[in-house]
Amino acid sequence: MGSEATVEDLDPPIALSTKPTELISYALMNAYERDYSHLTVISEDTRALLGYLNISRLKEMLKNGTVRETDHVEKAMQKFQRSGKVYKVITMDTPLEELETFFTEGVRGSGPQDFAVVTDGNRRFVLGVATKGDLEEFVRRRPA
d(Cα 47, Cα 138) in Å, to the nearest integer? Predict the structure, then answer.
């Protein structure tokens, strides 16, 4: 990858957000309509990022009865830990080399990551979601 390529070059899709009180069936329908693998979960009041829904994991939870489609998203979402956890800020200006390292190693050796929430530099607004698959597809299609 060339050093000038950034997350913006991936043209990540706009993040599709859901709220903790929405029904799982509604969130699932929105994810299917847009072929999204992850949905961000935001606060109803502040629009702060609370966590995410991994659609593959959600389907497993539905299959094994851990949750039902009539349950609220908060029952199935994976919450971001607010204290004691270091997060990597991924913006549109983040070099793709950094994004690749994030996908393979995580933050401080936390392990491989499947997706990255792309925010503005102050982490106030969710701009999009980039997946490992998006990066792989970009590298595959990019001329050598």
Answer: 30
Prediction pTM value? 0.75
Whole-angstrom Cα distance, residue 25 to residue 31? Answer: 10
Write down the pLDDT at residue 84: 57
- CA dist 97 → 5, 34, 125, 134 (Å): 8, 27, 23, 14
Q: What SS3 state is found at 68?
A: coil
Rounded Cα distance between 24 and 107, Å, is 30
By the 8 A CB rule, do 104 and 88 touch?
Answer: no
pLDDT in tens, 93-137: 999 999 999 999 988 778 888 889 898 888 777 888 898 989 999
Q: Residue 121 has which token pair?
A: 């530099």
